[in-house]
Amino acid sequence: MKIAYPYMGSTPRPFQAMLEAFGNEVVLPPRPSKRTLDLGVKYSPEFACLPFKIVLGTFIECLEQGADTLVTSGGVGPCRAGQYAPLQKRILQDMGYDFEMIIFEPPSRDMSGILKNVKKLSNGMPLWGILHQINILWKKIKLLDDLEYASHQVRARESTKGMTSRIYKEQIERVYQAQTPRELLNLRKETLAAMKEIPQDRSKPVVKIGIVGEIYVVLEPASNLEIEESLGEMGAVIERSMFVTGWTKSNAILDFFRMAGEADVRKAAKPYLPEMVGGHGQDSVGHTVIYAKKGIDGVIQLAPFTCIPEIVAKSILTKVSREYDIPVLTFFLDEQTGKAGMQTRLEAFVDLLLRKKEKKEAMAEWTATSAST
């Protein structure tokens, strides 16, 4: 089999390593580009959202490179994402491509199907070997998640612009090359230490911004126009609502045991949005409430254009913003979204947060001085 899969965040190289260990040839999906999106837009239905278009474009590019098997995820619930894989399969078949599509549905709905798919992809590898490779995959993605989190904390104060992003991207290849838990453990120590050693300007004023929204546009920089790098360079420390391993624990592993993931997030959202509306709408509300209580300076909501769950969340976030006095900026993303326009809005938002924070700190200092006298 010549296997390909969607490109999302830091996951492509770890998945490549596991599939190659299973004995497959991998067509590594290219990082989404303008051509990727143009292809997706050209062949997608008008109602399709940005993630659908990017993934469809990625599949076309991979099939052009000779892939004969596409691996992707399914889904259930109010969100349309559960229907994307069958629809993409039909579109690609109508275009004349001959391929097999392997769809991983949520564990609680189709565990037997997941086991069947894993068996097929592992090409007869014994169970202990499969478990070993899955363990290595998990450790790799967890390490990259932790590195990305560290980059969000460091980038805002880096003395040399771009150094944090360069170091992070260099580590992705090193993580791909690692083959044993011990190698990954040593690599974890080295890479996290390298992040901490990046020269920083501790006197630089910064703000903290929480990022919430739909999973694909939150996790894939190509879909959100590298918003986290842009914010970091503007002096913003990022608190992101989801990472791959955290989302997997809450929405796949716990879901399999019929246990509610991120109960604290749902509890925080309950006064405003007590029901699950599909996608990550309820999570966007809950995380915003939690960020407000933690003292985060502002929140940015990222959503694909036409995403109903995030549209519902946006209407509620107006009330959350007012009651908790936390500014919220929403971006609905599609193929028309331009980086220059986004940069302008981000600069204005960060400037607003900095001035609001300075005013708050000045008021606190004045209050403390008055009390002491």
Short key terms for the protein model shown above:
single chain; 373 residues; 3 domains; Rossmann fold; alpha/beta; four-stranded parallel beta sheet
**Span from first to last CA?**
77 Å
Q: Determine the fraction of residues in helical runs and give it as a percent range.
A: 55-70%
Structural class: alpha/beta
> Which outline best applies?
globular
User: DSSP helix count?
Assistant: 15
Overall mean pLDDT stands at 92
From N to C, what is the helix and strand string? EHEHHEHEHHHHEHHEHHHEHEH
The share of residues in extended strands comes to 5-15%
The tally of beta strands, per DSSP, is: 8
Strand order of the largest sheet: 2-1-3-4
The rounded Rg comes to: 22 Å
Tally of structural domains: 3
The CATH topology of the largest domain corresponds to Rossmann fold
| Low-confidence blocks of residues | none
Architecture (CATH level 2) name of the largest domain: 3-Layer(aba) Sandwich
Largest sheet: 4 strands, parallel
For the record, the CATH class of the largest domain is Alpha Beta
Summarize the SSE layout with pairings.
Blueprint: E1 2-4, H1 12-21, E2 25-26, H2 34-43, H3 50-64, E3 69-73, H4 84-94, E4 100-104, H5 107-121, H6 127-154, H7 163-177, H8 181-196, E5 207-213, H9 215-219, H10 227-233, E6 236-240, H11 244-256, H12 263-269, H13 281-294, E7 298-304, H14 308-324, E8 328-333, H15 339-372
Parallel strand pairs: 1-2, 1-3, 3-4, 5-6, 5-7, 7-8
Helix pairs in contact: 1-6, 1-7, 2-3, 5-11, 6-7, 6-8, 7-8, 12-13, 13-14
Care to describe what's here?
Helix 2 crosses helix 3, helix 12 (263-269) packs across helix 13 (281-294) and helix 13 (281-294) runs parallel beside helix 14 (308-324). This protein has three domains: 2-125, Rossmann fold; 138-202; 206-373, Rossmann fold (3-Layer(aba) Sandwich), CATH 3.40.50. Helix 14 links the parallel strand 7 and strand 8 (328-333). Strands 2-1-3-4 form a four-stranded parallel sheet, with helices on both faces. The model has no long low-confidence stretch (mean pLDDT 92). It has helices at residues 12-21, 34-43, 50-64, 84-94, 107-121, 127-154, 163-177, 181-196, 215-219, 227-233, 244-256, 263-269, 281-294, 308-324, 339-372, and strands at 2-4, 25-26, 69-73, 100-104, 207-213, 236-240, 298-304, 328-333. The chain contains 15 helices and eight strands. The termini are far apart. It has 373 residues and is of the alpha/beta class.
